[in-house]
């Protein structure tokens, strides 16, 4: 006896290969899942945002937008951030698998895959998702608006590793857009440029490290993306009004008061 459609898990397959689409669809149909499909990352993200599937099987290498960029957008959108994403891809290098997990996927399965194993992983993640599910907030969050999703995805990419921020072209590509659009959206939505945002985040992170750790100024400078302590100190003094050493001393004096 089949399960009621209202209770059957809905799974979105995102893969540019019709053969792989059919292989996955047949596997899922045997387990009585409801299946939908998309053929590139952009289409997959749009389908997920509108249909809200229970789980997404996502390829990595696809035209128009790759799986990594699609996953970044899914995790930056409050409407889709809780949907489990499993990468199913021929990209089997360790660094690619680790990167897939770092952008928000819950699992990474390499092709060719074992049908029973993939089905078991899907079931595990569906069960975990149901246990963690909370009531959806009423109304639509401004952060779910498409332009804000792009901005927030780019912010998350920048904030994740301030010491090694990619070029503006690479940031835009990794969130599925182009530099001119991303620059415009930052000015419209954040009131600043991408480069000014990066600088502000570096100085803010530096100030937090000065307050909360005993790492030396040179170490902090490198951790937040400055080439040396001198450049960091100059930028910090311009922003805060005092050099890093004086800021740290004042913070310590305030904490001991």
UniProtKB/TrEMBL annotation:
Keywords: DNA-binding, Phosphoprotein, Transcription, Transcription regulation, Two-component regulatory system. Transmembrane segments: none annotated. The keyword Translocase does not apply. Signal peptide: none annotated. The modification 4-aspartylphosphate is found at residue 59. Residues 10-126 form the Response regulatory domain. It comes from the Bacteria. Residues 152-250 form the HTH araC/xylS-type domain. The keyword Phosphoprotein applies. This is Response regulator.
């Amino acid at each position: 006896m089949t399960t009621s459609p209202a209770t059957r898990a809905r799974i979105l397959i995102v893969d540019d290969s019709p053969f792989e689409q059919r292989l996955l669809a047949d596997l899922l149909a045997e387990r009585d899942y409801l299946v939908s499909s998309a053929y590139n990352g952009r289409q997959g993200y749009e389908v997920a945002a509108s249909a809200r599937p229970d789980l997404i099987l996502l390829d990595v290498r696809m035209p128009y937008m790759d799986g990594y960029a699609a996953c970044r957008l899914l995790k930056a959108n409050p409407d889709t951030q809780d949907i489990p994403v499993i990468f199913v891809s021929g990209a089997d290098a360790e660094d690619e698998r680790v990167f897939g997990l770092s952008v928000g996927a819950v699992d990474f399965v390499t092709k060719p895959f074992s049908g029973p194993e993939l089905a078991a992983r899907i079931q595990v993640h569906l069960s975990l998702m149901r246990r963690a599910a909370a009531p959806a907030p009423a109304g639509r969050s401004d952060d779910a608006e498409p332009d804000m999703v792009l901005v927030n995805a780019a912010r998350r990419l920048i904030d994740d590793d301030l010491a090694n921020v990619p070029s503006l072209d690479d940031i835009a590509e990794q969130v599925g857009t182009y530099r001119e659009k991303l620059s415009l959206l930052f000015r419209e939505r954040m009131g600043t440029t991408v480069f000014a945002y990066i600088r502000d985040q570096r100085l803010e992170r530096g100030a937090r490290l000065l307050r909360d750790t005993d790492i030396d100024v040179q170490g902090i400078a490198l951790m937040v993306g400055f080439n040396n302590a001198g450049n960091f100190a100059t930028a910090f003094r311009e922003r805060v009004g005092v050099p890093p050493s004086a800021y740290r001393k004042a913070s310590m004096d305030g904490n001991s008061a």
